[in-house]
Amino acid sequence: MTPETIKRGSDWLTGAGLRPTRQRVSLAALLVGDGNDRHVTAESLFAASTGSGEKVSLATVYNTLRAFCDAGLMQEVMVDGTKSYFDTNTHDHPHFFWEDDGKLTDAPAEQLKITKLPDAPEGAEIAKVDVVIRLRKRA
Predict the structure, then answer these.
(1) How many Å from the N-terminal Cα to the C-terminal Cα in the chain?
(2) Which of 40, 103, 111, 136 is the most buried (most CB within 10 A)?
(3) 42, 66, 93, 124 from 24: Cα distances, Å
(4) DSSP the chain
């Protein structure tokens, strides 16, 4: 990691009011250090961290991702109710889930048109709408 990626990660944390611990800064630098958005699983971020020489446990990665979500730095995207992806792009937007390789990518939001949602049941309100479009390669 370069000083620039570490600074970008540290600034990302402090901008959200999170204390920039060594492990948080390291993970933040991997997530936003190059200025690009990421879709990661805890396992893929753990592997990237290990590959960069940072010593961090998988449990710490999970806890850190949860703290980043709670601070509004990331959003969690559930696929199949069993697999969580974490997205550094927190704006509302749809996703493509590539079934063949298990990747999550952004879908073009400007092409999505939702014209009407069903009414929420009595006593409830719609908190969020997640759109995950599942793709597979043609045979």
Answers:
(1) 40
(2) 40
(3) 13, 12, 26, 36
(4) --HHHHHHHHHHHHHTT----HHHHHHHHHHHTTS---EE-HHHHHHHHHHTT----HHHHHHHHHHHHHTTS-EEEEETTTEEEEES--S---EEEETTTTEEEE--GGG------PPPPTT--------EEEE----
Distance CA 61, CA 58 (A): 5
Locate 6 and state its tokens.
Answer: 């570490």
pLDDT in tens, 90-139: 998 999 999 999 999 999 999 999 999 999 999 999 988 889 999 999 88
C-alpha to C-alpha distance for 106 and 50, rounded to whole angstroms:
26
Closest alpha carbon to 79 in 91, 64, 92, 96: 96
Q: How far apart are CA 47 and CA 131, in angstroms?
A: 27
